[in-house]
Amino acid sequence: MNPPATPWARATRALALFAIDPAGLGGIWVRARSGPVRDAFLALLEQLPETPVKVHPAMSDEALFGGLDINATLTAGRPVQSPGLLQGSVPLLLTMAERTSAARAARLAQSLDGGASAIALDEGEGSDEGLAGTLVERLGLFVELDGLRLADVAGAWDEGIGEARARLSSVIMDASELNALADTAARLGIRSLRAPLFARSAARAHAALAGRSEVAPEDLEIAVALAFGHKATRLPEPEEALVSPDPMPECARDDNPAGSDDPDHASSVPEEVLLQAVAAALPADVLKRLASGRTRSPHGGGSGQGAPRSGSARGRPLPARPGRPSGADRIDVLATLRAAAPWQGLRAARPGGALAIRKEDIRLRRNEERTDRCLIFTVDASGSAAVARLAEAKGAIEHLLVDAYASRDHVALVAFRGTGAEMLLPPTRSLVQTKRRLAALPGGGGTPLAAGLDMAGNAAVRARSKGMAPTIILLTDGRANIARDGSANREQAAADAETAARTVRALDVPSVLIDTSVRPRGDLAALSGTLNARYVPLPRADGADIAKTVTQSIDHAQQGAGH
Amino acid sequence: MKPPFPFSAIVGQDEMKQAMILTAIDPGIGGVLVFGDRGTGKSTAVRALAGLLPPIRQVAGCPVNSESVEACPKWAEIGSRRIVARPTPVIDLPLGATEDRVTGALDIERALTRGEKAFEPGLLARANRGYLYIDEVNLLEDHIVDLLLDVAQSGENVVEREGLSIRHAARFVLVGSGNPEEGELRPQLLDRFGLSVEVTSPTDVAERVEVLRRRDAYETDHARFMKRWRSADTKLRNRITKAKDALPEVETPDQALADCAELCLAIGSDGLRGELTLLRAARALAAFDGDAAISRAHLRKVAPSALRHRLRRDPLDEAGSTNRVARAMGDLFGAFQTAAE
Description:
The complex is a heterodimer of chains A (563) and B (341). With 563 residues, chain A is of the alpha/beta class. Chain A has helices at residues 7-20, 22-25, 36-45, 61-65, 70-76, 102-113, 133-138, 161-168, 175-187, 194-209, 217-228, 250-254, 271-281, 284-291, 307-310, 333-340, 383-388, 390-406, 431-439, 449-465, 490-507, 522-531, 543-562; strands at 27-31, 53-55, 67-68, 81-82, 92-94, 118-122, 141-144, 316-322, 363-368, 373-380, 410-417, 420-428, 469-476, 511-515, 534-537. In chain A, α6 links the parallel β5 (92-94) and β6. The longest helix of chain A is centred in the last third of the chain and has 20 residues, at 543-562. In chain B, the strands form 4 sheets. Chain B has a 5-stranded parallel sheet with strand order 4-7-10-1-11. A two-stranded antiparallel sheet of chain B has the order 2-3. A two-stranded antiparallel sheet of chain B has the order 5-6. In chain B, a hairpin with a 2-residue loop joins β8 (156-161) and β9 (164-169). Chain B is globular.
């Protein structure tokens, strides 16, 4: 059994391991945009012992989890329950998994905890779309197919899955190997204990596939590569500085049923080897992200992955209302049946036991259109702002955050300094994170105002596409001196800022411009005119006053945008 | 379905285990909120708890688990008057649950097939006298939260819809878990939880390895593992039952009352629920420890869980509520120690 050399081989190996122990591994997170490579991968699924059932994000809960089958009930004249796709032990194939709602993800997560398994096809592009954190946590293996060409698809499918399955229960894994897995996970900054458990299952499955009855070092290598790569939150520090694998304390050893562990034996698998194995399998962009100091992958991270989706996407359901369906309305079948049901005895029974449903029974579905606010703080962290009043601006934002907390607003944080802008935090309701990112925000460098506005505009568009009502709050002292291309050209910078402001204005997003300069001058008021933003010079006052002023301005701005 | 992971076999997380045991002894404490990282055994602990709870006695077939035939709601057509013992219900409230699944609604099956207007009880009915568990509670839709708050406050579920007018008892212990990084919990809901616990993944490698090892044994050597831990769980269950019986006998010295009040004043918790919960939790702990009266040691052990979520909250205060409670306790009890003991 050769270690998989190519990404494609790794993908097929992951699939084979999953086929051997679906319950133990939970599933595979496959990042792949549609294309021939993904088709080739999907074709392999046909060869699994149980062909996975497809689940689309828009599939109803009844179809997935089971419920009353209205069609069958009506025809049969007695209640017919449909079992739901999750009832069997067949793995699920979650297509467009990145669109799975937080609520659906949570229910799926419960099923996965209960022994179900799934292959999640993540077709997301960019960092604002990603698989829900609850699912990432419970899918043991990760496969990245993006960037592969059809020519890379080569090599045979691993044979012998049936035999491996039979052998799986007899594969022995000793305590030092578990130790090594736990250690490696800790060094990669993986806090959850599910990850090392998945790695353990993967190692055992791999040993079974290779025909071994004991887990060998190469099994561990492949297991950590497939199970840890995507969950790593930091690169391992080269050496010592880390907790060395202590011999197990006495009490713990007593509980070990196998009783086979021997502290001296603990270093049979050098962890460096395992760490290297993980590093080799890290998704390409992860290394970059880690290097740039972002310790949390946007896909795996919890930053606002769940909250925005559970918010207002569909609106709060209201009781169904009687009415006549026009093209735009949807009939609430259950409510309609409920309305008609009590009358069935009185209304003359139709031939064939069919229901008598009259016009007045029709119920329409209604949702309350109440969108969540999303405040996009766009902070000028340039050198001039830092000198002026970055600290006070931060204070004002913190006060606004308290308000945001009270009204359950989402908050996003964009900062611009040096040569560009950065999305420090995608929309989230987690204030703890916002605070942390804000506190860590350094000041210095030029003022790329145009870049900041561009990014704020993009964030607003994305927030809107998720059903939120964005508001841009721009804090700056206004001397744009870095152009869009990153060059320090004051005139070009001012022109670019002007263009960017017009673009944002065209989006019709309510916005507030907070002038943080020490002595407010005319140019920022002019910019706010271009932006159609409310202009608020930051008064010399304490943070609470600032927050009050700004809150009023935001409310005004939003009302203004309503007309 | 595999029997759940044994409660006694959960490594570490002592505060979480203590909180769950205390609500098992005295459900009046009012539920547990477990907030923390993923993969720290939150759900495992809740499922394990189900195995520890003493059985309840209820009318056979009663949809709301009533204790006596008289207490059964009229709409419930119970077949017999027999009283049976059954495990305490631990009901999952899945995130996607619709309002009619939670509160109950017109029984559409019977309406369609027999033309009868009958009530189909929801999750709240099934959870009566038991536990209602919400995983990822901070992601729960707001309208479901409103509904839960209302029911938790009144202990009664009122359904007025589709021409039905139904009410039934719905008293349950709310257990919630979640990951704070995904969003905050509404303060009103926070307040409904008696105890709150913060869990983190163990940072000690030895402890992590032990978790892995036990989980591994649970999955691969299931029968032996369950057998190994059965006696520990049985012992714990007996201890809980004993503590339940002893609960009314536990004395509450005036000093303990004063301590509770002073502590709550010192940290500035809103309302009086803090004091009451603190006292009840301390009493349950005293009963669990087999002590005759509440002592400062008990208060000290339960105060963080009982109070940390009741501080007038500055959502941005990262120093953490836990530290504030600890500091207040140090100030008060540290100084008082010699005088009282």
